[in-house]
Amino acid sequence: MAKETPTMFSKLLVFICLFMFMLNFHLSHGEQQEFELLLSFKSSIHYDPHNFLSSWVNTSSNTICKWHGITCDNWSHVNTVSLSGKNISGEVSPSMFQLAHVTNLDLSNNQLVGEVVFNAPFLSSLLYLNLSNNNFTGPLPQSLFSSPFINLETLDLSNNMFSGRIPDQIGLLSSLTYLDLGGNVLVGKIPNSITNMTSLESLTLASNQLVGEIPTEISLMKRLKLIYLGYNNLSGEIPKNIGNLLSLNQLDLVYNNLSGPIPESLGNLTNLRYLFLYVNKLTGPIPKSIFKLKNLISLDLSDNYLSGEIPNLVVNLQKLEILQLFSNNFTGAIPNTITSLPHLQVLQLWSNKLSGEIPQTLGLHNNLAILDLSSNNLTGKIPNSLCASENFHKLILFSNSLNGEIPKGLTSCKTLQRVRLQNNNLSGKLPMEITQLPQIYLLDISGNKLSGRINDRKWKMPSLQMLNLANNNFTGELPNSFGSNKLEGLDFSQNQLSGNIQIHFRKLPELVQLKLNNNNLIGKIPEEIFQCKNLVSLDLSHNHLSGEIPAKLAEMPVLGLLDLSVNQFSGEIPKNLGSVESLVDVNISYNNFHGSLPSTEAFFAINASSVAGNKLCYRDGDVDGNGVVSNGLPLCKSDNPINSITLLVLVCFVLTGFVALSGAVIFVIFVRRRKKSFEVRKVVENEDGSWEVIFFDHKASKSINIEDVLSSVKEGKVISKGRNWVSYEGKCISNDMQFMVKEISDTNSVSVSFWDETVTFGKKVKHSNIVKLIGMFRCGKKGYLVYEFEDGKSLSEIMHSLSWQKRIKIALDIAKAIKFLHCECLLVGLVSEVLTEIVFINVKDVPRLKLNPPGIGMSFISIKGSVASSYVASEEKMGKEVSEKCEIYGFGVMLIELLTGRTSDDIEAVQKTNNIVEWARYCYTDCHLDTWIDPVLMKGGDVSTYQNDIVETMNLALHCTAGDPTTRPCARDVVEILETVQCNRITFC
Predict the structure, then answer these.
(1) Any idea what the Cα angle at residue 306 is, between residues 303 and 309, rounded to 5°?
(2) E strands of 172-256, at which residues?
(3) CB neighbour list of residue 75: distance below 8 Å, 6 or more residues apart
(4) What distance in Å separates the CA atoms of residue 52 and residue 88, rounded to the nearest whole number?
(5) pLDDT tens column, 534-554
(6) Which of 191, 706, 810, 824 is the most exposed place for a label (fewest CB within 10 A)?
(7) Are the beta carbons of 816 and 972 closer than 8 angstroms?
(8) DSSP letter string, 85-123
């Protein structure tokens, strides 16, 4: 027995050693496999700007557990990969999804592309998966929704470009507590199987293209705290049994086509803090049960078809901070009980049919900051207590029937920033105190019955940017200063003001618009006005002004509108007036001008009514390059000696007048058309066959030939690509003239009418902010479009380096280009989504749209794979016909990006809403400016200087991105607003 003990001990020792060896071998082998998989992932990364993966190397001193972003368990297996927000790009290697022991995988907030493929046997330990905010494409990975992943608790695939349907197997993920598939291109219905996920607490499917009804079985998901299904095309009624989800904290169904009444059962959701149902087609009254939700902080039912009265029961919502019911059909009076909501900050009830008086104690017991009751039928006086909170800064009451004087409580409100009281029946004098308020940047009290003098007090409004006192009964002389050097818009039109124009224009360097028309002003145009180098619009019409037009007026660099009509001006028109390219609208009618019109572009095609009522004429040689004379004016006498022969000829002309006049009209129309649209057509033969060549530019027709185009394509210096085209740099062989040539790679993919539409595009689309199409070459199945060439970069590349002044100038110039397309060319659908990628900033800092003729897609396709849904208006998503309002929507998104410095797929921008438009709306209403403005502008000091401009521009952006296209402004309105960086009452097209 004594001899057997060592033998047993030896065997045991051998077994332990063997076990340890096998275990060590297994661990080493597993670590080696993980090492290879991670290096394979690294090799698929094309761009790592912060060198985050530089530690991922094979050295003896480093193990993978020490690599950045890697965490291991006690067995040295990789259990966490966290690479969020590293801005890495590339097509993800499938190896990343083969790490057998990973429980947490986070690749969010990068620029990763390609399809995601899971191998079901791997990642079976996965609990947390976040691939959000990348550029992944293809369908949702089917293998993800299978039994190996039943332990998955968090799944975030939001803000990518996943397409196709949500798999029915999604219900197998029964352990999920968080699901976010928002911000993709998913289609079809919400599968009923989703309701099997009874552990789910947060459900987001927003910003897709989902259709159909919300599953009624959603009531089975008892643990849900958040439901966000906004920005889809869901229809039908809100399920009545949604009121069974007693844990619900936030319900957000915005921007859909939901109809029918708001369910009474919502009153059961006693934990609900946020209820957002705006921009749907909901009808009927607000259920009384809603007013049982005593924890509500924000209630937004705006942009629906709700009706009835706002009940006094609103007093039960004692925690309410935001109440937005605008753009509905509510009637009756504003309930007095609303004045008893202690935390109420934002009250917006505009565009309803409300009547009666505004509760006179409103603001006294509230924390009111924003009040907008505009476009209703309200009567009575403005409450004196609105500013009691000492936080009140925005008052919008325009287009009602309010009367009485502007209350003293308002005139002493030093926090006021924006006041719009236009189009009411307010009377009395302009209070002395209101012209001393330090923070007001917009004051519009036009269209009332105010009277008295406005130059009998000291104006000390250092923040003032826009002042509109038009259409009142003000008398006396104009004030000479306003205490602000930021003024951009001044409108004193349609009053009874008299005396000389004595405004100190040297103190108004930012002035953009000046309207003094329809008054009793006398004297000359003051020389000092020419110091306003930013002046775009000058209207002095319908006064008693006299003297000559100062020659310096012709030197105003950006003047676009000049109206001097119905005055007593005399003398000759300065010969260089209109030589500045910006001047496009001139009216000098009904004065005492004599002599000939200037030979400048602004006067070649001037309307006859704009020069009538003078003693003007045209000289014999005073015509444009196509022989067109100014409308309605006689030939100057010095150029028209009359003798008997001439008289006889004139008599003959009278006898045949109708024929001659008809011929002249036809000739003028013909020549005018030629002036507007240069075109040269010819057929050129070469070894490829017969080429149809059309030029839309005179210089190009003399310089570029088919050999230049073909050699440029052969050299292959690619600028950009689309679905069925490629753009190349081009250069003339003979004279080095540069151009851009766009090869239509698949002519079968374009419509039969494409080439005719391209000719229309080339002839009509000529604007300083649009890159010109200068030629077209076509032979058989080959087709080339030739554009002018300019060096520069896209707006998306340089946006973060721009100052506020440059950003707002870019926005205005692009708006002018869109206005030109919509209002002058009558072309819609060319711009489609107004992306920062198609806004091109040349070396002279001039922004230009790079447009394609209809039918060949946008350059953005080559960048993202498909057009980001955030840029696309809801009606376009639903397959409705593209209208000009779709392009206004895209322009609004571009404005948001210019203001915030964020893009539509930026996680920081969409963390609350999954949609940049909705996020901007939320921030504009609920957040301080510092939380959403581009940090670059904060650092540059632009925010403190231009804060009011920025806020007003965001307001415009939100108008442009309204859900209902009929409420979006037209391009003409957008240009007018941006020219003054303020929000006048918009007259929608």
Answers:
(1) 125
(2) 178-180, 185-189, 202-204, 209-212, 226-228, 233-234, 250-252
(3) 27, 101
(4) 9
(5) 888 899 999 999 999 998 888
(6) 824
(7) no
(8) T---EEEPPGGGGG-TT-SEEE--SSEEEEE----TTSS
CA–CA separation, 438 and 484 (whole Å): 10
Q: What gap in Å lies between CA 358 and CA 423, rounded to an integer?
A: 16
Q: How far apart are CA 904 and CA 643, in angstroms?
A: 74
Range list of β-strands (E), 213-297: 226-228, 233-234, 250-252, 259-260, 274-276, 281-284
Alpha-carbon span 1 to 4, nearest angstrom: 5
Amino acid letter, 879: G
Distance CA 87, CA 672 (A): 54
**Predicted confidence (pLDDT) per residue in 218-256, tens digit:** 999 999 999 999 989 999 999 999 999 999 999 999 989
Of the candidates 165, 244, 144, 174, the residue with the CA atom closest to the CA atom of residue 212: 165
Q: In b/e form, how buried is each residue of 329-352, taking b as 16+ CB within 10 angstroms?
A: ebbeebbebbbbbeebbbbbbbbb
Contacts of 105 (CB under 8 A, 6+ apart): 80, 81, 96, 97, 99, 123, 126, 128, 129, 130
Distances, alpha carbon 92 to alpha carbons 41, 89, 106, 185, 866, in Å: 7, 9, 13, 20, 19
- Contacts of residue 862, defined as CB under 8 A and 6 or more positions apart, other chains included, come to 720, 721, 722, 723
- Let me know: does 163 contact 184? Beta carbons within 8 Å: yes
Report whether 549 contacts 573 (CB < 8 A): yes
The answer to whether 758 and 745 are in contact (CB under 8 A) is no
Candidate from 75-89, 363-377, 750-764 with smallest mean pLDDT: 750-764
Residue with tokens 């070396």: 843
Nearest-angstrom CA–CA distance, 647 and 571 = 30
How many other C-beta atoms are found inside a 10 Å radius of the C-beta of residue 975? 23
